[in-house]
Each structure stands twice: as structure tokens, then as C-alpha cells.
Amino acid sequence: MKKTTILLLIATAVALMVTVTPGVAMANFAIHGNYVMDTEACAGCHRAHTAVSSITWTNSDTVPQQKNALLISTASETYQLCYVCHDSAGQGADTDVQSGVYRGTLYGTPNATLNGGGFDSVGGVAVTSKHIETGASWAAYGGGNYGVPIGSVLATGNAVGQVGTGNLIKMGCDTCHDPHGSSNYRILKDNVNGVTVGGYSGDENTPDPNPNPFVISAEVGYPIGGFRLHQPYTTYKPNFTTAQYAKGPGNDPTKGMSAWCSGCHTAYLTQDSVGGTVYNANDRYGLTTRHRHPINVALSNFKPVSRALVIGGTNTLPLDHDASEAGGITNQSSDWIECLTCHAAHGSSAVMTGFANVVDSTNPQKDTGGGGVAPTDHSALLRLNNRGVCEVCHNK
Residue 16's Cα: distance from chain center in Å? Predict the structure, then answer.
């Protein structure tokens, strides 16, 4: 009898999640933001006095404390709650981030790959790399302090997990996304890894404070100034399968998606690819100066004009466009390359072979690695096989 009762409670909780969650739960819409004063969306996930889930959150008091999130799901990790709607069964949302497929019809190409890829598979093929979503600890390459030994304890109290990384970060859906909405595109958090990457100019006593986003979009009806609280953005039409990324607000190269990513991957936004940063990338070169491809820079910086302006078909890579192009974006020499030009946000099924798969960068031998080049030893979230993302622009 006891077992039957527990199963019934679990089934009821899941059913509640499914039935009150709209079929299209768009970012900063419906269950994920822009709540009005008489919103019913809170009840889609929370119960004020009868919550079941053990998931917690940490408040921002002088002495931070953990509090229960009051979720009705039986989930113990955030991704389990998110997968009630965003899983491959497609129970609540059209965006199946588990399999990287759009299962709707209004906001993208039906059954096409999501812009961010998937956590388990992409196009029916198992991922070869992904951002961790399960709540496990992970350290961002090019992040935090560089060159410190594995196992060292930083000032934050966190241990270093891998050479060339900083502190360990607990990785779940809520590491990057704010389920209640944010000033940024796709409800990307306004503060990630302790770094401010967006937000609002007002405070809790200021109604509808003005947003100060880092990440915006060139999608139809997107509010270029960012999402204001409690506003029904009825003309906004997201596209989940055709990337329509925008430059940073005001075309500011210190903002945009790349600046948001650098909240964890600290070194990667650096514009000067000559100056470099000293750290150990675990590629057998040891502690030495590292250089990076510039990002948030226009294609016109490269001569002759990049092949990315004319290439079409399945090898097209997304660029950052001026937000004013909404509804009619075309590749231009003034468009920027950014992190998402080459990398998928969630997961990639790209394959690394030959010189894209070596164990020792000081003596590269084909197919000696673990499916990629050190330090990642996997496909590094690249959108195309091997280094196809290089050829799209450089056409060598």
C-alpha cells in the first residue's frame, strides 16, 4: 500500500508538470518569464507548502544559505525537472534539448536540429562532446587561474580539476539558464560563475526596471534593449533551428555571446591573439604563453573576403548580425564571428580524426588521441567534423 501511494504521488507530480506547462514554453514567455500579477505559471513548477523535490537554491545574504526550491517534481537535480518538458519524449515543450530536435511547427523547421545541438544526440547521432547538464562538477578550459597543478585548492575553496582550468563549477541547466527569465537571449543568466553578464538597472523597489543585457538576437520582434519585466512580448518570434544571433547591444565587442561565455572561459574573449596568456593546456607544451583566435571581430578583418559570406547548404556557420536586420539577415563582411559561430552550446556529434585526433601536440601523429586534441580529447562542441569550421571561412 505504501509503495502504491508513493508511485501515485510521483505520477501526480509529473502529470501536474505536463498539464500546466504550455506546449510552447518559449524563453521569457509562459512558464519561463514575463509574469503578470495574476500569473498561473508559478504553479507549473512550485508548491508553496507541499513541495516534494529536494532541489535547493542559495540566497544572496551576507552569509549565504541554502533554501529548498519548493518544486513539485521528485527531481533531485535540476536537469531532471527540465527534462519533464525538454526531454526526447516531448511531453511539454517543443524544444527537445535532450536529442537536440525541434518538435514544433511555429518557431523553426519541424524535426530540425536545435541551434544549440543536444545533450545526448544530434541528428540521431550520439554526441561526442557536450556541456555537462547532470549536476556534476566541471572546470572550464581557459578559465580561472592558469597553470596551477591538478588538485590544487584555489582561494574559492574549490579544487582544480584539470590542467589549464580554474575552479570546479557545478554544471546543470540552471548554471547557464534562469528558469524565471532574464535580460538576456534564451533566458541566459545575468550572473554566471560569479561574473555579471547582464541584468537590470533598477532594484526590487523599482517596477519594471530597464534591462542591461549582454546577449540579444536578430530574431523577428526581439526587444533589442532586452526583456523588461512583466511585458507581454507578443510580436517576438524566436527561431529555434535557424540561428539569428546578434552582435552585443550597441555593437559593443565587450558584450555579446562571447562575453557571456567568458564568464567561465575567462581568457577566450581577449582580442589580442599576439599577447597571449600563460597557462598549461595539458598538451605537453607545459606552462607557456597561449594564443587564441580573435572573436567578436568582423569578417572584413580577413582578406580576401571570407568564404563564409557566400557558402551555403549544411556547412553554413552562424555569424553575429546587426540587430536591425531582424527578419531579413544576410551574411555581410561587417558580421562578427563569435563562440557560437564554431561551437554548439549544448552538444555536438562532430567526429575528430587524423590530425584532429592527436595525443601530443608537440609531435602530432594521426589518430593517437582520444577522439580529439588535448586538452579536451573530444570534439570540443565543434559544429563540423575535424576542423571544418576553419575551412568555411579560410577556404585554403
Answer: 28
